[in-house]
Amino acid sequence: MAAASNEEANYNLASNPKSSDIVRPVIANFPPSLWDDRFTSFDMDIQLSSMYAEEIKVLKEEARNMLTSVDIKLSEKLVLIDTIERLGLSYHFENEIQEQLTLAFNGHLKLELDENNDLFITSLQFRLLRQHALDAPSSIFKRFTENKNGEFKKALCTEIEGVLSLYEATYLRRQGEEILDKAFSFSKAYLESVAPNLPELPLKKQVLHALDQSLHRGTPRVESRRFISLYEEVESKNESLLRLAKLDFNLLQMLHKNELSELTRWWKEMDLISKLSYARDRVVECYFWALGVYHEPQYSSARVMLAKTIAIISVIDDTYDTYGTIEELKVFTDAIQKWDIREIDRLPDYMKICYRVVLDLYEAFDAELSPKGRSFAVHYAREAMKEIVTSYYVEAKWFVEGDHLPLFDEYMSQAEITAGAYFLTITAYLGMDNATIEVFDWLLAKPNILKTCNVVVRIIDDVATYEDEKKRGQVATGIDCYMKEHGVSKQVAIQCLQEIVEVRWKDLNEGILDNSVSMEIRMRVFNWARVAEITYKRKQDGYTYPEKGLKPHVVALLLQSFEI
Fold it and tell me: Which Gene3D superfamilies match (predicted)?
């Protein structure tokens, strides 16, 4: 439903009979949900899903045989692995893929020493190895440069597919890899120059999409949905892999729609938005975020837990940003720290609703996880909730105090927490059976990959939401803090912050190599940066205004299936 007017909101929500005397922030009047009851009802077609599963089983064996065949050259196998991953099928073959890439990395087949490998294969090999935490050296690109300055050879400009492969590979670069910085500039400039004149073939679509969204920073499920459609147009496509990808996508989509149906019914039964009409009604977009973190079937219950938590923290965020007074927020913050239902009597009526929902949600998590011996995970998640709410309160005080504009580093010390990557990663681990106490302790120590992800998410969010926040009277935004501290204009501040983001993406790539926890665990952190990338694309707030951003992706992933 649409947000209520200011007068209605005060009348409906404030517990004080003299609510008109309460001075509140400017209520945002967020757009209503785009989806109504679109996802509430879904009946799983058991017969169809069983048919899909049976055929998938057969086609998987065909693909596995290709992956493990000794009769296929490694260069061809790299293309096969890349195709399988782009089609969204890699979760079926994780062990086989890792084994093949480890062989390549260890040089058993000496691919890296083969001077006959062209730019396409060299770049593909480099990207695949680094994606799988195998630290391929950037020096393998030296032979494609031609002078002391390390400029790439002009002759390479005849190899469009090779340059495109190089371009995608450069997104795996880390700090200090000058050759890859030059490779990025070279490949980007070349692809931008030739893209308009390419014939209308799959290659042109690939080039244009890569320039808009790199594969490495893209959300895997979104990228595979797009690639399946593109692969269908490729003349040399493997029909068996294509059919497997379509069947697998449709079968997974059924599971996702079933989860979303459960989630939207839960949301509708709580009826939070009619009671707290200042908040954003974005439960479908919350589920999309959870899909961005993990879409594979084994994470089904974890995904629902995560989506529910995102929906609730979104309401809490709006409470701190757009409705609560500083006095009310102080009481709510204190109540969250105490985590005791008896604290509810201290809260205004509208906050009682929110507080009870939070406690009930975590109690439900504990009831679900306790029989599995995972109550410890709920403890960590609860502590993370306390931390993020405390930082929400600090930011709310900055807003009220107005004249206090913190230094950028002081701002980021809180903003990195309120960006939510840490809080939501903890939550993402709730339903992951291999997220042990040691994994939670690793995250609690705030490893570099997490700190870096927080910076990326925070700045991308700040740049996209800046204009809206200024309209609501926010003064302590990241951009404002940077402008004041460095004495620069808004445009310069935004440019500098975007440069910080680019550096931090390189640090995220470094974090992929940290083997103190499994790759499965590390990638949940990395995927939050990917979710931010797609949500705030083109400096637009695609969460608050999904019509601008997330709507086409929700439609593609949850409403459009492939014809079989």
Answer: Farnesyl Diphosphate Synthase, Terpene synthase, N-terminal domain
